[in-house]
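Task: complex structure prediction.
Instruction: return structure tokens for all chains below.
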Amino acid sequence: MYRFIRFAILLMGLLSASSSFAADAHLEPLTTADDLGPVVEQPIEFPHNRHAKDMGINCIYCHTYSRRGNVAGIPPMQKCIGCHQNIESVRETPRIKKLFEYWDAKKAIPWKKVHDLPDFVRFNHERHIKRFVFQQNRPVQEVCGACHGDVKEMTVARRQKSLAMGWCMSCHEKEHVVVAQGGMPIGTAAYWYAMKKPAVKADGTVVAKGPNDCSSCHY
Amino acid sequence: MIDNNFDRRDFLKVLGWGGAAVALTGCGNTSVQDGKETVVSYVEAAAYVAPGISTYFNSTCAQCEAGCSVTGRVREGRVLKLEGNADSVINRGKMCGLGQAGVQHHYNPDRVREPLLRNGDKGETITWEKAYELIAQKLNGVSGDNIDFMTGTISGHLKVLLSNYMDSLASKNHFVYEAISPAVQRAANLKSYGVEMPRFHINKAKVVLSFGADFLGAWVSPVHFSQQYAQFRKGSDGQRGVLVQVESKMTLTGANADRWLVVKPGTEGVLALGVINALGLAGLSLPAAVAAMVKPYDKERVSQETGVSTDHLVKLAAILKERSPSLVLLGSAAEGYAHGSQNAAAINLLNQVLGNVGKTIEAAASVPFPQVAPSLGNSAALRMVNNRLADGQTKVLFTYGVNPVFTAPKETNFAANMAKAGFKVAFAHYLDETALQADLVLPLDSALEDWGTHIAEYQPDGVQISIQQPLMEKLHANTRGMGDVLLTLIKKNRAAEYAAFEDYYAYVRTALLQNKRQFADVGVDDEVFWNDLLSAGLVNVAGTSNKLVAKLASEIKLPAAVDTDAKFPLRLIPSVTASLRDGRHANQPWLQESPDPLTTIVWDSWVEIHPKKAAELGIVEGDIVEVESKNGTVKAQAYLFNGIHPDAVSIPLGRGHDAMGRYAKGFGVNPFAILDRVFDDETGELAMHETLVKISKTGKRVIVVKDEGAAGGNQHGKKIAVNIASDQVELSGEA
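Output:
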């Protein structure tokens, strides 16, 4: 019984997945359509806009772990304080006062998660930052924005993209075109096949550079 | 034991609906916690900390006394996994299952978290200040002669602090108790070789003859010996080493042997002397005294007494003579008798006549700082403490790292005797059987939260001082390190002397820095030295090596025949398993659920019975049998096992707790409880294999929960690896 149900659901999933991809005949541009997440109330209404737009602070200045590990992490509070202890002009504003309350008590701020993936997926920030920021020299805000939306226009962050697997693939297909053996493109649903086997061009170059194995992300 | 009362059909129904539920909920991303889950960042982060990236710290495994150095993987301030430290000469980057479970000791939900003071049947939470005050108050006016401190094996600076503390109390009563220890062997080695624990080179031997030494499982330093064994099997000059194991109950090492010889329990010494005699007859020159001594042990007599065929005996002597050097080892199976010391002497004599001393047996380096050398445990200590308690000589009793109420035979009445002491303090990680009898229970840091230094008894190369350092912050605010507690206690008596040490960390650091010149080059900065030391997790000192003295035993008295009793016809072998040992870690579920290597049974005790004996008694697998000794009974499931002498039954040690925690309490039975009080004649060690029992069916039967298939691990008659002698092969018909 269990097996049948599982099989039926898998089949349904497959059908809906393939039909929805068949509908996307044209690939989306780099920044995909928004799929807004819930509005999340944070303990301190952190103004990303003030920092990233008005001040022009590089995302990686605070989210420094993003280029070093799997997770971007939330900056340690000492990072906030490092600057703000010297910025007298805003020292008495409600949000900064609250920040210093936490700091004085040496208590971590209980931020709420905005971007989360299921536990069976591992997304690696480091690889993406290394490739787009350090190898291709693209502007940081564009690179981060591809997945996180236009954060410089937000106060507290809100999830902008769906972050589901199909959404990941929408980029990976476009940027790393997958072709079947013999050089024949097999459409937008090609990753089902290509994940098992990257195609090799006549001149020996491997065409599919995206994750070619389930275990690239599911491990 | 598990009673299967529910219906198979019901079970399938539940499984079906459960499966459907899993499949349905599996559709959505239920683990996504957008806007709900908190993501806690650091307030201040060290420069090397990045979320998601592990850092590694070296420390020392405290699961047994082998002193393996470990590397802990730490992420986001939590220790996740332990591995062996490659720089350690003891374990050389490897680790055993018992060690791996060390994280479950640390994260265990049943750890004691607050100091508890007895109030009737309950423990009342008190503060540490109150606890210290109470100890001072109870010690006040008590003569040092009436203060006993009972610990497990202890070494390093903790031992120094403890002996200084006992000194400050004017007490000489520090008793080191280990329920399972090679104490008989130590005494025998001291007589034969001049040292208690020499170095054994299994890897240099061409033949290893082991009398019940389970060196791959639980004997002395199993991780180290496992690696030696691997080299031994590859062979030093292309010749694969041959392992012969002699024992009455198959151990993991026995299962790996080329030849497993089952002997009548207790006749190991007879066999050893028989082999010496056979070696002499085969042409090996024996000293005249030895030849005269072994003369009565001709092969027919030895075969009759031990049950080993004359053919095997002659073959064994032949291979030992042909392949040199060899190595003869001696384990708990040979030690555990009233004549255990005699067995050990006979086995050591075999090593001597084979010329192994100096080749495969060498003197270990002696520890250059004797005050930190390990205080070795034995079971004679239990007897002493118990006698003192029974006589009312002990007024205040401290226990640390021991659980005598669990490991003492019931007949000793240890729990009742303990009650006679006016004030009992247990330093504990769990509320185990002994802690439950105490008046004051003081919660300790786990081994992964505490500082320390350890020196193992078995030192394979020089002397390794293993450093223990915290791998993470303390989990519970009110636990304390044992060193810190002792330091606080000693400060009450010798404030001036110890004022300079704020805590145990400062004490260890100062002590090691004072001896810096022993470990490092001249001119190394203190801070650099200390950081290097912590980063390495160990420090090696050459130590001085004494030469072994070979003293031939002049007289070995072996009993003519091993006692049997018509009422109790079978011998109980309480077996030591690699993961549970004496049961101190039974509350770590990984150890409970990892299948026994030989029977694959999990989470329960069993009684090993030879199939022949079982057929005689009408017992089949899963029958609940009652094992009765003079001192009590235990009931457990029967397991039919070819690897046991038909006149013996075996129950593994370590299970059968009635306290300690959710994973230990109520699982299995405790064979310690029904042991007879028989002691080794020379050392006074409890003779663990001297208990005689009878077994009877209770009429109940269960399904044995085990990993192996229904047919069991029995490969007899299944023709899995069919073979034929080469001279029997008829090749004339081949093209």
